[in-house]
Specification:
By secondary structure, the chain is mainly beta. The protein is built from one helix and nine strands; from the N terminus they run αβββββββββ. The protein has one domain (20-129): Cupredoxins -  blue copper proteins (Immunoglobulin-like). The structure holds copper (II) ion (CU).
Length: 130
């Protein structure tokens, strides 16, 4: 019984090590930025483990709880929210361990914190491949 529990625990860091790591900057000018990309866009495979490594810089305004930008994943076809992908960012760096949507297709990321007068433009494309 003890050995079984130990094996279960040991498998967790291993699974995370295999996750796709995505570097994201949620910047003070109310824009998402990804290193090496002129227009930020995230592409993942359906159902794969994703580690989102985020750096967030405060814009002109933020939430009372201290979150400075948000990250909500919506289905492009009907703008419904994807469960488990409604994130809030604090100033500085943070990491999220997520699972990509199981349904391939086009999605949109939108900021959910009113971070400046340019907040409405804080969005990017998110593609899920089969
Ligand atoms: Cu924002």
């Amino acid at each position: 019984m003890m050995a079984f529990a130990g094996a279960m625990f040991a498998s967790v860091p291993c699974a995370r090590a295999q996750a796709r790591v995505i570097e994201l900057l949620a910047d003070r000018d109310s824009r998402y930025k990804i290193p090496g990309q002129r227009t930020p866009e995230i592409t993942v495979k359906a159902g794969e483990a994703v580690t989102l490594h985020v750096t967030a810089r405060r814009g002109k305004t933020w939430n009372r709880d201290g979150s400075i930008h948000g990250f909500a994943l919506l289905r492009a076809k009907d703008r419904t929210k994807v469960e488990g992908w409604n994130l809030l960012f604090q100033p500085g760096t943070q990491e999220f361990h997520l699972v990509a949507p199981s349904e391939p297709g086009e999605y949109i990321v939108v900021c959910t914190v009113i971070c400046s007068e340019d907040h409405e433009g804080m969005n990017m494309k998110f593609i899920v491949l089969p």
